[in-house]
Amino acid sequence: MAATVQILEKNGAGATTTDKTSGTVRFKNADDSTVDLNDPMVVPGSGTDYSYEKWLIANVSGGSYTQITNLVAYSDGANGMGTGVGLYAKAVASYATPAEGTSTSGYTDFFSYTSGSPLTLGAGPFTSTGEKGDHLVMLCTVASTASGGLTASETLTLAWDEI
Amino acid sequence: MKSDPPVPFELAEREGLRYASNGRTTVILQADGATLKRRRGIKGISPKPPGETVLPMLNELAGEVLKRLDMPSEELAARVAVIGAAAHVAKPERSEWAVCEVDGIRIYVDADTVIVTRKDLMP
After folding, report:
1. Does A153 touch chain B (CB under 8 A)?
2. Which chain A residue has the Cα nearest residue B7?
């Protein structure tokens, strides 16, 4: 039986985890994993509204495998969230309490990561259960040119090699 | 390369041969210095929650029904059916491949498709 791999969202100083493998990651102006309409990002009159960081990590919850390598994340290469809405990503080893973004410095446009050029979250080899690889830290930005309302959702892919 | 639902390949070695099988397709590797592994992926993480699609439609329908309590049953049923259809959200797609590499040639196999290439393909 292959490894059972989940995507976890981590929040708060205590790194509370929520399984988001089949769920929605909601970018908002608060550090929580709840998918609701509270603390929404807003279209600013000028400048940019930054979301709180989203800290995601792969977690092996069970199954049987020898090792996992080449853990990567990538997009479909096209920003479908609309004019003025951006999504940025970086890989970070150690967890820190998610903070509200103030700039995209240190991040890379998530849509530049594609299947041909993914973001590496860890070469491995990883064994046993638990969290594996770096955190995928993501940040959403809304510029004054954006339209209000809910954006379209976007596709995140997590892939890895396993023996 | 889709299979619904995809079954992960199991890897085994017997009598000097390496196998990868998902119960439907079996890959047998008989080559020195070759590798055989699984390449797995989860695509479509974080879909739009169905509630956000359905809620405005429910609100709109509720408003119309309040104004037209005599809305014909066929029309009401059709409207409800449309909302029900909108509630279906595609689940994240799992990709389960077996990957052989022999002298720089990679063979990607899932339940339906075989791709032979030198490229490093991702799900």
Report:
1. yes
2. A2
| Residue in A153, A161, A162 nearest the CB of B47 | A153
Question: Does the distance separating the beta carbons of A35 and B41 come in below 8 Å?
Answer: no
Helix ranges, B12-110 (H): 50-67, 73-86
Q: How many CB pairs under 8 A join A and B?
A: 80
- Interchain CB contact of A78 with B (< 8 Å): no
- Mind listing the pLDDT tens digit for each residue in A99-130? 999 999 999 999 999 999 999 999 989 999 99
Cα–Cα distance, A59 to A38 (Å, whole number):
28
Our CA angle for B16, B18, B20, nearest 5°, is 160
The answer for A 81-110 residues in CB contact with B (under 8 A) is: none
Q: Model confidence at B80, in pLDDT bands (50, 70, 90)?
A: very high
d(CA A6, CA A15): 16
Q: Are A68 and A132 in contact (CB under 8 A)?
A: yes
Of all residues in chain A, the percent with pLDDT exceeding 90 is: 83
CB count in 10 Å sphere of residue A86: 19
What is the residue type of A11? N
